[in-house]
């Protein structure tokens, strides 16, 4: 190219917006400072624009990194000089909501929050929720197979996607916009693009399954001796059909204590020094019945579960305060600079033993280590932050990972539950993923993206 | 090989049972007479036995067809001379049921019925059900991505599988026995094997997600003017959290009339000549409340939905009689010899128009054609049989398919909802599946099974 890269892009793609590195430097890169390390950002207006950009990059041997809301926590959208960002923000139209088929069709750059709002007008909901709802995009959530609070009931993004459209590394468009749940019409290749973090294709359009909204939701905060006790409570409510368990979040003592101090939370009678706290959400047709079922259910299981103490929120404000204890996790970053943070799935029956084992293992690395542990009890997804400033040395990071990940796959868990692999977990992927699976993944990456156009160096090992 | 194929197999695989063609000819081939066309059947005892069999076949250039319960309806397990059957019936152990993690780990040859029984002891259920439960195996259900009556709520087999183990065409074992819902740890390649009908690997072990059993389930039979009316009823019950909709099956008049005559069904006051019948299942903690919610809900939606008449079953026997109307579909085969039968997914809002369109299109082919249409209303999966003896000529079959499948993909539906592609829908796959998807599928088959060892000629087009 005789022109600069941004100038060439503008010439080749006149319908797209283009920012150069100077402009990028003045913008907010989102969660990860490395997101805007590229030489240019292109914002196409439609799928044809994305395909034209992909073909341009493929022809010129330039690598392309798709970005949505830039809320990813694993460095999957990080870029470097010479690379081009494909910003999906221009593809932000909700194209259709069908209230009888309970399906929404949208472009990939629509935010979760915008989708939730549009669905709510029909008494529907995409069935998935997470704290970054205001900026996380559906395309990004598909690409990382996002999970969140309600996955234990509704599944992860993979389970919500009915169909998708994606631009392949050769510029062709893979179009499987099925909007029905049942299809056994050959290999279901859309699943290759779900959770692939933009390394096999760029997701441009998605059909998502919707659920009817619950009339009202009651909240409780319950102190329990351990996760097994909390699981007994969850099991009790899952077994009832007279209300719908909508959330079951667990906070271990270190995390709960930090949040309580940071948020100045004072519930009065509730002993926040229980070994674990459980935040429960229960949906029913009306608020009184939701609160009633929650109170009756806790009373029924109180002794069997060994509940220390519990409180059903009597107002929306009290419920919101309980939820802040769980959700305002940026308090960890206020207390520690870039603390090493992890995201694992632990099989249900093994949770207490797992937490005890990692606490002991981390203490061996550093007697001051006392991790903050919290997460989604009912699906086993735990978030873990170390109570120290980061980044720690590569060697120390690896040692912490070994404590957290050792034996996890063999037990049926996962070293990456919902944040993806990106750059941060590439090393762990190579150490902990099944070698046959890694080999197949490399072969498939090479097959579909032989020129390594799309998000090279992320997720899969290889060139 | 100097010996015959069965003798060579027995020598090479001393731990497996081997049947030759003579023995096969004396056995029940299951739903499809072509299932036992092979030269030999091998029944390994474990995954190592399956891997040894695969290596033997790969080395000798023999093609291998995996079989479970032989209940498939699309010819996916059909075999011919020179081929070897890998019978998974020897891998029939349920290895673990974890009531707190709500997961079951089992070998692929376990039947759905056996799994349901074992789970019921813990108050749990695999969340998927179909009429062939007594013989259909979990491995076969994974391989065809089975759906059934409860998929509208719980998803298809793909949504129930947490992890799986499969033997690849080169004899290596792909092992992803994750037993948690949330994992974003690289490409989720287990989805390649789900719905691939044994063309990419042989599934040997599966981890399945379980749900808590509903306390009691009430049944109603409702006459409605059309599918849109039935969908209003479904929407009403889905929006309630005080009970759980467990089934919503729809029967168009031709099918309902056939079944009523064949089963001599006489409900008394119910006008079975309504344009459509809806069989509803509603779960609640106790039978009285299930019946109460069903009665109250029907009363509340009666006028809005234009209900013709309806009856809530007052006894188990009455409920069973209602279910027989929907489930004893072999009555179609009693009325017609091998009637041409189809299995499509139609997007929710388009169902009445679809049925009207195919009825008119079929009449144009033959004025006597009046299809039997019935199926799973809430997920759009319709089963269609033509009221004539079969098999019809290839040309006529293609003409019928064109009436049924034309425009279906573009509208977001599927020409194969839950029966798979197998042999029966190979032609339709080539005519109706997205060409880019077909090309990717061929590339992946070639990548993973370059020697075409596994179930050649099924699902994907190619060599």
Explain how this protein is built.
The structure is a homodimer of 463-residue chains. In chain A, helix 9 (227-238) packs across helix 11 (287-305) and helix 14 (351-365) packs antiparallel against helix 15 (394-405). Chain A has four domains: 5-89, Uridine Diphospho-n-acetylenolpyruvylglucosamine Reductase, domain 2, CATH 3.30.43; 94-212, 2-Layer Sandwich (Uridine Diphospho-n-acetylenolpyruvylglucosamine Reductase, domain 3); 216-313 and 320-328, Alpha-Beta Plaits, CATH 3.30.70; 331-424, 2-Layer Sandwich (Alpha-Beta Plaits), CATH 3.30.70. Chain A has 463 residues and is an alpha+beta fold. In chain A, a hairpin with a 5-residue loop joins strand 8 (161-167) and strand 9 (173-176). In chain A, 35% of the residues lie in helices and 21% in strands. The interface between A and B is large, with 100 and 99 residues.
How do you describe this structure in short?
The structure is a homodimer of 463-residue chains. Chain A is of the alpha+beta class and 463 residues long.
């Amino acid at each position: 190219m005789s022109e600069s890269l941004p100038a060439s892009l503008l010439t080749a793609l006149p319908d797209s917006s283009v920012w150069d590195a100077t402009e990028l430097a003045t913008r907010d890169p989102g969660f990860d400072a490395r997101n805007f390390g590229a030489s240019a950002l292109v914002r196409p207006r439609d799928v044809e624009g994305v395909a034209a950009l992909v073909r341009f990059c493929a022809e010129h041997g330039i690598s392309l990194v798709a970005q949505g809301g830039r809320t990813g926590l694993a460095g999957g959208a990080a870029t470097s000089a010479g690379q081009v960002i494909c910003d999906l923000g221009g593809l932000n139209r909700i194209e259709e909501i069908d209230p009888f088929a309970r399906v929404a069709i949208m472009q990939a750059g629509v935010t979760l929050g915008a989708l939730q709002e549009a669905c709510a007008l029909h008494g529907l909901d995409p069935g998935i929720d997470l704290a970054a709802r205001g900026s996380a995009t559906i395309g990004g959530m598909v690409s990382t197979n996002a999970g969140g609070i309600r996955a234990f009931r509704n599944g992860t993004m993979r389970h919500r996607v009915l169909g998708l459209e994606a631009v392949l590394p050769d510029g062709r468009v893979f179009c499987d916009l099925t909007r029905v749940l049942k299809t056994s019409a050959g290999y279901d290749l859309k699943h290759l693009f779900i959770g692939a973090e933009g390394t096999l294709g760029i997701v441009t359009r998605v059909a998502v399954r919707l659920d009817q909204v619950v009339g009202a939701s009651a909240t409780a905060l319950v102190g329990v001796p351990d996760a097994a006790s909390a699981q007994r409570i969850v099991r009790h409510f899952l077994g009832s059909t007279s209300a719908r368990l909508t959330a079951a979040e667990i906070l271990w003592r270190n995390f709960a204590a930090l949040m309580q101090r940071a948020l100045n939370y004072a519930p009065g009678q509730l002993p926040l020094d229980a070994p674990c706290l459980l935040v429960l959400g229960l949906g029913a047709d009306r608020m009184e019945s939701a609160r009633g079922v929650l109170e009756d259910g806790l009373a029924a299981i109180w002794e069997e579960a060994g509940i220390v103490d519990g409180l059903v929120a009597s107002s929306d404000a009290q419920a919101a305060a309980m939820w802040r204890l769980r959700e305002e996790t940026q308090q960890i970053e206020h207390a520690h600079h870039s603390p090493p943070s992890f995201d694992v799935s632990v099989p249900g029956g093994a949770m207490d033993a797992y937490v005890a084992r990692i606490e002991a293992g981390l203490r061996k690395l550093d007697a001051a280590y006392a991790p903050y542990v919290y997460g989604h009890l009912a699906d086993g997804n735990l978030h873990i932050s170390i109570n120290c400033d980061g980044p720690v040395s590569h060697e120390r990071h690896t040692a912490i990972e070994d404590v957290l990940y050792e034996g996890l796959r063999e037990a049926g868990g996962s070293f990456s539950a919902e944040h993806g692999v990106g750059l941060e977990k590439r090393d762990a992927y190579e150490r902990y993923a099944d070698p046959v699976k890694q080999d197949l993944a490399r072969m498939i990456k090479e097959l579909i993206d032989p020129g390594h156009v799309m998000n090279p160096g992320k997720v899969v090992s290889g060139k």
